[in-house]
């Protein structure tokens, strides 16, 4: 894969206050990209940088989303939520708004994080997630993520869906496995949020996974 930062772009980052989102902002700025972060609470973004604009808003607020999308060249989404036990459509409805806004302002490139264990990667998060975590704790969350993926695949945008293994906070190694074969039916494979961000940003210049759903894990 090509290194980050060979050619700067104007990026809109969604979900910038989460662990992966913060890494996306940090590494994108290190790569000399111009970053706009749309967040509910701007106070949670501690980074100060001349190439960073932080806007208050969210994906369910079309007006704030459209304001953030003007002039962008790509959108990277690390959108998530913590309402695991409640049936919700935040991810799918938010992604639907992102897609319509991108089309309105002619932003073509969309890179979005979901998870292993969804759709055609079902069971690839290992037995613990397959038999317990997903059906008991994350059922509604994964159901919404599945709808989110379907919307992206049918969007007509230049999309890549990134499916990580179990996420944890750790340093960027810039060395990991990626592709359709990633995952395991028995063991739960892991990946740091920093490396997920690294992989997502590399997709800006590497089109090998255009219109594809690569997994990523160690």
Largest sheet: 8 strands, mixed
Secondary-structure element string: EHEEHEHEHHEEEEHE
Spans with pLDDT under 50 lasting ≥5 residues?
A: 1-5
| Radius of gyration based on Cα positions | 16 Å
Number of helices: 6
**Helix fraction bin:** 25-40%
Please state the structural category: alpha/beta
Strand content: 15-25%
The general outline is globular
Average pLDDT metric:
95
Give an account of the 3D structure.
By secondary structure, this protein is of the alpha/beta class. The chain has six helices and ten strands. The chain has helices at residues 19-30, 62-69, 90-104, 127-137, 139-153, 193-202; strands at 10-14, 34-39, 52-56, 74-77, 109-113, 158-164, 166-168, 177-179, 190-192, 215-217. The chain has an eight-stranded mixed beta sheet with strand order 3-2-1-4-5-6-10-8, sandwiched between helices. The longest helix is centred in the middle third of the chain and has 15 residues, at 90-104. It starts with 9 loop residues before the first strand and ends with a strand.
Write the layout of secondary structure elements.
Elements: E1 10-14, H1 19-30, E2 34-39, E3 52-56, H2 62-69, E4 74-77, H3 90-104, E5 109-113, H4 127-137, H5 139-153, E6 158-164, E7 166-168, E8 177-179, E9 190-192, H6 193-202, E10 215-217
Parallel strand pairs: 1-2, 1-4, 2-3, 4-5, 5-6, 6-10, 7-9
Antiparallel strand pairs: 8-10
Helix pairs in contact: 1-6, 2-3, 3-5, 4-5
